[in-house]
Design brief:
mainly alpha, 7 helices, 0% strand
Amino acid sequence: MVAAGPPGFDLTLAGIAQRGVGGAMDPAWLLLSRFGHEWGVVPVDIALVALLLLRRRWRAGLFSAVALGGSGLLNMAAKQLFARARPELWTSIAPEHTFSFPSGHAMGSMTLAWVLVLLAWRTPLRRPLAVGLAVFVAGVGWSRVHLGVHYPSDVLAGWALATAWTVACRLAFRRGNGAG
């Protein structure tokens, strides 16, 4: 299946993002994008699962591993299924060469955010963690549009798919335990 062209709102929001391209914020958007995957999200994913398993929190560790790892596999499969080309609206300072839909950075950062919030659900950390991670996830998503490597709909799809996947994993793990 090949995805259709971008919806109108994609081009409108990409146009807004393009206004800042080449400005003083470019290095910050590039840094945030890198923390949204290879410098932040992926190492934290691995460290979180390892820490939970080292602490013998088997169920939480397994939930985290399945949610985080499964999200990455789901993203790769969806990219192949939809085969949407990357935007070519302006020259990117961080070009990508894989398919665009859904955004892996958006999906990975949202999955990690949900996993952390769900693990902290019954603690006082839940709300501040959710607020901080919401800002991070939104920043990562906007950075991908600003860098010209994703349409906004790629980011929204990544967030939606990550949310559905992580919540489904959580429900499956809760159901298997019989506890809340």
